Amino acid sequence: MRSGRKRINLDGKWRFDMFGCEPEDLAEVEPGRTIDVPACVERYFPAVTREQFYLYYERSFELAKRHNRRYFLHFGAVDYLCKVFLNGEKLGEHIGGYLPFEFEITQLILDNNRLQILVFDPIGGGVLDNRKIPHGKQNGEPNWYTNISGLWQSVWIEERPEVYIHDLKIEASYLQGRVRVSFKTDSVIDGAVLTLLDRKGDTISSKRAVSNEIDLPVSGVFPWSPGEPNLYDLVLEISSRGVHDRLSVRTGFKDFQTASGRLLLNGRDFYIKGVLDQDFYPETLYTVPSREYLGESFRKLKRMGINTLRHHVKVPDPLYMDLADEIGLLVWQDSPYFDEFSPTGSLELLKTIRGAIERDLHHPSLCVYSIINESWGIDLTDREQAGWLARVLDELKQDYPSIIFTDNSACMGNYHLKSDLNDYHFYASSIDRGKLWNFLIESFSNNPASFYLREYRDNFEEEPLLVSEFGNWSLPPKKWLEKRDWPHWFSHIFKNVAMTRPGGAGERFLASEIAREYSYDELFEISVENQLENLRMEIDKIRLHDRIRGFVITESSDIFWECNGLLTFDRDFKFPPERLGALLENDLFVASLESDTLWLGQEARLLVRLFKRLHGETISVESDGLSIERRIDGLEGETVALSLDTSSMSEGVRALTVRVGRAASTVPLLLCKRGETKLKLIKTSKSGPSEPEDNTVLVLERAGMNVGISPYSARTVEKEDLLSGDWISGIFWIVKDLSPFAPGGHFRKCHGGLIAGRPMIESEGFSRRLIGITYGWLAGFYGYLDMLEGHRFVTTMNIDPSTPQGNLLLRQLETLQY
Length: 818
Prior knowledge:
about 800 residues; alpha+beta; eight-stranded parallel sheet; 12 helices; globular
């Protein structure tokens, strides 16, 4: 919100200190350090992540009071318990880490003023039990990333008239052609004027009133949307016995609704193409580095085709919402969660939700709000807790009808009770576990009522379906491996899972077999291709189900130990944005192959599922040695089949680029010449020593085997649990020598049949690892194909010389030199 009110910005250097116990007399405190405000204390003093401290802030300021003016000290957000003193007098306290608060200081102001603030942020169960307070992914059990404490948003003093506007609530509807405003004042007003201005400052509509509620009809306004983020200035002026106040607020006209299983933005069908955004930053943590930094991050996401931000389990800085309005991104806010349900904590959570919505309700970008995420902090099998959630949803829907609410943004093992959206989180490593991904999406689309808790299935009403979390990892960029001064979070290991340990990743890479084949930069590019191939497979499958009305990719950027971002932690591109943009912006069709592994010359059947009716449009298919154009006709939802002659193409993995107008899709196809294979294939399920002949491929058929071929020893490991790659994706890699079987060392969907359901190899003593996988921050190295002396090979892959992929791989192995 903007106004003509005078402000004194108190950001900058403050005097600061930390104490193990609460100071008895703040008047005697002489701080020995300094800190920036706004900032998270952990940025400068990471000891607060390990030990409990009281955080002391102090600064002085000068202020010459004006007659008939009131003065308020305003805090954007302070985490967590805050006591504020001015000139030795206690102004008050505030509890909570996310909402703005203020104190009137009119009667306490001197020419020179001493402002003191004492902050306590619990990291254990002593003074306050941090498990029972809303904290999100900082603090708590488990602590996902890092603690956050202190004055992490701006502080200022605002001058106001004796009678002033506060608690302003704005709801602007494009479909109704009106804007409704309510507000409060400390005294009865003589009158109010509400005026809507366009961006040039010209008046569109204006209305006078004598009440604190105004309903202003408007006409000729343009709606706000991601494609056209039209914004207007709304000016409210009041008068009360000769005292005047004025507030100017930027807003937009938007309606976001659900109807018959669809999402409607301004009355038109809308499909969410979102990202999960944790809203943390490498250096500044919770604090937004700058308007320019955040704005550029948002613009990069839009270049990829993203239209929605799912702001995850915290309350955003107001700047976040301002920029989403300006740039054109819908915002789906998630409330911060607690670890353990309690009466006090649930009250504080509801207060936080209401405070966040009322602060941000004038933003046209705010569309969806999640009360709970993945049942964190709540047991939905407990009738009292489940009843609380259902009641809260009803209360919020009644009080904020312009917002779409989801009760529990659910994942495997938990469910919905009562919700405007039926959203669910699915994670699967799709290159080798594509059948699982397909099963999950089909189950969701075909039986959505089953994603409600059984006792609450009467509440199911064909709400829009959304896959509200899914995604895959790449590796971290080289920058983070080369850092000399590691940030404090480098030592953090989430839930003691080694894959999440950043520290030592560079050394682990250099000591690995992969470093013999690739530079780290090359391996990083392979990992990004893994990520993109998984996303292509997953998004294509989602789009085939019309009942699913959108998705949210995890996540916008890498975040501390998580490397599943579309951008790096520094908000740099991992890949050219048009790579993902072409996939997300294709609203015409999904292309797939009936079979993506064929013998060269065999007919390929291309299946094109249409999202819109096409009549006489030209479809083109291009690849190495192939270029065709045909007319295409089909109805919405119809699948059109095209036959492709592969005889003029060359052996190897080829990319088919399919285009209709500006929409494009790329599909991999593996082609193999029929040829005799000379390597001898031996399949075994027996453990123990073995002496295979030269020019042999020993296929280990099951998990739990132990095999010795001196000096080589191996055991086979099931690709399950953490090793499944469903959460922390495995990065598949193939040596350069095996091109054209895998150009660039990249695994594609067409390779999936070789590794799907197969165990991995944990081994030593090999001459060379040819195909392998690693996880997370390079914490585990496993193989699928090892090379030994005597041109012998050990593998767990499903190699069959009578199939194109098996035949091509075996013939490629024959060309390798020891």
